[in-house]
Design a protein that fits this description.
This protein has about 300 residues and is mainly alpha-helical. About 65% of the residues lie in helices and about 5% in strands. The chain has eleven helices and two strands. The protein is globular and about 50 Å long.
Length: about 300
């Protein structure tokens, strides 16, 4: 979700209460800017005054606040933080495993994996020069991504293959950031990717899911303690890694029962001539490899 905050200093020419109105407008602007600077580690913008010494606001103040906010966020993203205790890392891994393995929880939590899956299709479609038409995420955890371009060739093959590869590779990237102490960087990057997805979602349920997940990341960054942020970040990484394995197993099971017609693996088989089973094997190798490497990085 994006938006813009435009500050302008109103003119109260000849009005007897001009100074008072200017002060009120300045306090309102300062309050709005304070919301933007509430993230921990983002420098607070000091009160500013006009030439007469009265609290006031201007468009330049808004620009300065935006610059300070982005500098603070960038500083948090690139600054290494202390590593959490191994107990927390293992507890987060267990929580993620339960969310993936549970028959009751998985039908709900799988939606997050679907968002990553369809986001992978969408991102690679854009990177390969295809025209992205939109993404839909449905309540039954199914999803679809539309893109236009050549019906054959590397672009469509890479776009189709990206879905099952996206969750484990995103988890691997998150693990790499966490293992080097860049917890805030991992959370901020996830927020950037979710924000980009907002612009291509084409149904209400999908948009709601993306906004809820993005909102959770914002709340954790904004209000969460170091322990909460650490727990959230590590659960996120473990969930993407483990959640990248189960859909591949489900796809293989469906294929054996003859229910995978139209799946990514079958589409890739038609596009490349390589059997669908080989593509499922590739998805599984990548998912398990990402999980194994990430486990070595995170549990040490």
């Amino acid at each position: 979700m994006t938006g813009s905050l435009i500050l302008s200093e109103p003119r109260f020419l000849g009005h007897p209460g001009a100074e008072r109105a200017r002060a009120v407008a300045g306090r309102q602007a300062e309050h709005s800017l304070g919301i933007l600077s509430a993230l921990p580690g983002v420098p607070a913008w000091p009160a500013y005054h006009d030439d007469a010494g009265t609290a006031g606001g201007s468009a330049m103040a808004g620009t300065g606040m935006d610059a300070a906010t982005f500098v603070g966020l960038w500083h948090r993203a690139v600054t290494a933080q202390p590593m959490p205790p191994r107990t927390l890392v293992l507890a987060c891994a267990l929580a993620a495993l339960l969310a993936v393995a549970s028959r009751r929880v998985w039908p709900v939590s799988r939606t997050v994996v679907t968002v990553a899956h369809e986001g992978g299709h969408a991102l690679v479609a854009l990177l390969t020069g295809r025209r992205l038409a939109g993404v839909r995420v449905h309540a039954n955890t199914a999803g679809v991504t539309w893109s236009a371009g050549r019906p054959t060739g590397p672009g469509i093959v890479l776009t189709t293959a990206a879905g099952y590869l996206a969750p484990p590779l995103l988890g691997l990237g998150a693990a790499a950031l966490l293992a080097t102490g860049h917890l805030a960087g991992a959370l901020i990057l996830s927020l950037v990717l979710l924000a980009g997805l907002v612009f291509v979602i084409r149904n209400a349920y999908g948009l709601l899911v993306v906004l809820v997940v993005a909102g959770a990341v914002v709340v954790v960054l904004w209000r969460g303690s170091a322990l909460v942020q650490g727990g959230f970040g590590y659960v996120m990484a473990w969930f993407l890694l483990l959640g990248g394995v189960r859909p591949v197993l489900e796809l293989n099971h469906s294929r054996r029962r003859g229910r995978s017609a139209g799946s990514d693996s079958d589409q890739l088989a038609r596009l490349t001539g390589v059997p669908g089973g080989a593509w499922i094997l590739l998805f599984g190798v990548v998912a398990l490899g990402a999980l194994a490497v990430s486990a070595l990085w995170l549990i040490r």
